[in-house]
Amino acid sequence: MKIYNTLSKSKEEFLPLEEGKVKMYVCGPTVYNFIHIGNARPMIVFDTVRRYLEYKGFEVNYVSNFTDVDDKIIKKALEEGVDSSVISKRYIEECKKDMEGLNVKPATKNPLATEEIDGMLEMIQTLMDTGHAYKAVDGTVYFKTRSFPGYGKLSHKKLDDLQAGHREIKVVGEETKEDDLDFVLWKPKKEGEPYWDSKWCKGRPGWHIECSVMAKKYLGEQIDIHAGGEDLIFPHHENEIAQSEATNGKEFAKYWMHNAFLNIDNKKMSKSAGNFFTVREISEKYDLQVIRFFMLSAHYRSPLNFSAELVEASKNGLERILTAVDHLNHLLEGKEEPEITEKEKELLVSAKEYGSKFEMAMEDDFNTADAISAVFELVKFINTNSDGGNSVFYLQKLKAMLLQYCDILGIIAEREKGLLAEDVEALIAERQQARKEKNFARADEIRKELLEQGIVLEDTREGVKWKRA
Ligand code: AMP
Ligand code: ZN
Hints:
The chain has 469 residues and is an alpha/beta fold.
């Protein structure tokens, strides 16, 4: 299996630190609003990486943080006149709902910055003790960038070029640093902001330190894969490397993966330009499965353009897959069990070739675009090579293959059965009849059966009413 590593700018063979196990850290969102459609890209892409690794038999420990202390959260809290924890808690919950809709598996752990302050203070102390950090006159603690010889290795930047060309890395209010390249580990509190005690000043952590601390606490000093959007390469991930490697004296992450950006109608997403959508807004227009399928239609390192036509195309593509499964289910309904024929055995061998194509694409730096092409080839094969004359074994085998490859992509290819209104009405009539006959056991059974399907009954004076829960 090959992974493109930002560190070496090349595809490398994937060899985990520990056999059969993968330690993976994905930088999560800052929770000050609903997540936008761009944020959904890394979530879907790296969830798919995880799913494929699990399919290959690896045990994946997947950690992804929520940044719950940040200027944007504080600003929103001030606007609403509430504590910043009210804002972060609200949007963590909303983010989790969106992730569920996108069929992103829950992480092994979602650490929160505000719950990991002790670990951050400890790491900052170690950096102070080893001469990698210093306290400025106003109490701010900075990382001394030039003290870490490997700085720039991820973003492939040279320190002197950075110094000359990147004056903007000196943020307003950070005039106290000794060198433009130094970055904040801990900063003094301002009026109305959340803060914690420390021996340097009452204040709060810089952004970068949280990921170094959380990765170490939940995964260890060395991890296999560290991932996020490409905007995080510099300075966020470069700074994480500096902090972690200066503290632990070991290589922090073996493989660094970065997704390219999602644009809208070929333009950078921006609120002021009016081309900005939250996942929630999009979910009112499209099934989020369609959005997931769309996100995987391009390789994760290629820019992806979000437009109504392209999403429509994904919708149609997904529908083709669901229809193939409907077709197989239809053929399987009430079918007797004839023996699998020699011809069918041969056909299954051909069908497996699409599976190999799928795997080859995924093994080549998770090329989901090509993997999806292999799925479509399998769909075409199913449509031309299955009918009422086939055996149950053969049809079930084809269905299992299709469902499995879709599952690796996080796509649920079998439609929810869901009772139709007429089925519900028929069961209600049966229940009424059972009650008339004093067969309360059957009546209760029907109520329970309906409840399991998400149908709630209400006995009113006008008769029985029902609704979907
Ligand atoms: P943020 O909350 O801004 O830190 O973003 C959370 C994650 O979303 C990071 O991995 C970002 O790199 C990623 N991200 C933000 N905007 C986009 C975009 N337009 N396309 C792809 N990824 C993005
Ligand atoms: Zn991070």
